[in-house]
Amino acid sequence: MATPPPSPDSGTCTDSDTDTPAVAIGVRPKGAEGPEEPKGSHDTGDAGDVDVAHAVPVRHPLRWLSVAVLAVLAAQLGHFLATNPNFEWGTVGDYFGAQVFGQGIATTVKLTVVAMAIGIVGGVFVAVGRMSENRVLSSVCGAYVWFFRGIPVLVQLIFWYNLSALLPRISVGIPFGPEFAGTQTNSLISPWLAAILGLGLNEAAYMAEIVRGGLLGVDHGQTEAASALGMGRARILRRIVLPQAMRFIVPPTGSQVINMLKATSLVSVIALADLLYTAQSIYNRTFETIPLLIVACLWYLVMTSVLYIGQSFIERHYARGSSRNAPQSFWDFAFFRRRTPRAPLAASETASAPVSETSS
């Protein structure tokens, strides 16, 4: 029996191979139940069918509200700084470039460099000792870290400065035997040496943990491969492990340098003429406390900004090839620039990239 051809209004079409009626795309069959689907809900694979003419961008009212609040606070801060006569900005300008502050800044910088050098070198040795297989050496290094990290730096500075009350005389000789040389502790422990001991030994404990974390971040297979090539433990540490651990060690070390620069202000309690002690000695005579403290704050900001710039360049140097996102530079931080991830290689570029041949 012949099948009648479908009517034009039926909304169906016939498969030429199987003679099976098929539903036409975008046309609702007659008699079907359920709500009618919205127009354009089917994905036809044609980008031209997507209507974006009336697309509305996502609004962020809370962002604008936060910007408005910050703008009001910034305006209030600017008005407060400009109209409050107690700041005495004229006095700040007079003392900002004074020679006496230059001497205090030089003392602060030298103290930072020497204390960080002791901290970095001592931290490397303590970190290696903590990772040693020698139980005694590992325990002693662990006790060193526990002791110096548990006592505040200010307490350590005062203790070293008053060491003569505990040990009036320091001598060198054979243990429990005759002494070869000795001197009075007061003549040996000066404020400068007390500051170096207090800051340097304390920093070595913190740097030991930073270095140990960096060494543990290197894949153990690197050490095994170097050992298989016949390299000694000291050479493996110097040539293989430390260079790879630098990208884990450098960022926190830069932060420690900045913290050390600020921690040098604690030496003012032992009468060492650093930046803060210089400001205190002046305002104790002139009673211009706020202007002199502002001068000290401005110089600390200048020095820490210089260190931050150097840290950003060093981080970018050691982070090359290790991640897609390079560390944020100082200028990106200063001008509120967002980090832009590196674009991945296109398929054509990947396919055309040369492949090195490996000899069998």
Task: Give a concise summary.
By secondary structure, the protein is mainly alpha-helical. Helices cover 59% and strands 5% of the residues. The strands form two sheets. A two-stranded antiparallel ribbon has the order 1-2.
Describe this protein's structure.
With 360 residues, the chain is mainly alpha-helical. It is built from 13 helices and 4 strands. It has helices at 61-83, 89-96, 99-130, 135-150, 153-161, 185-188, 191-216, 220-228, 233-263, 275-286, 289-318, 330-334, 347-352, and strands spanning 12-14, 21-23, 169-173, 179-184. The strands form 2 sheets. It has a two-stranded antiparallel ribbon with strand order 1-2. A two-stranded antiparallel ribbon has the order 3-4. α2 packs across α11 (289-318) and α4 (135-150) packs across α7 (191-216). It is flat. Residues 10-27, 39-44 and 345-360 have low confidence and may be disordered.
Describe the structure using short key phrases:
360 residues; disordered C terminus; 59% helix; mainly alpha
Question: Low-confidence spans: pLDDT under 50, at least 5 residues?
Answer: 10-27, 39-44, 345-360
Kindly report the spatial arrangement of strands forming the biggest sheet.
1-2
Proportion of helical residues: 55-70%
Helix and strand content put the structural class at mainly alpha
Strand-residue proportion = under 5%
Q: What general form does the structure show?
A: flat
Number of strands: 4
- The chain-level mean pLDDT equals 80
- Rounded to the nearest angstrom, the radius of gyration is 35 Å
Biggest sheet record: 2 strands, antiparallel
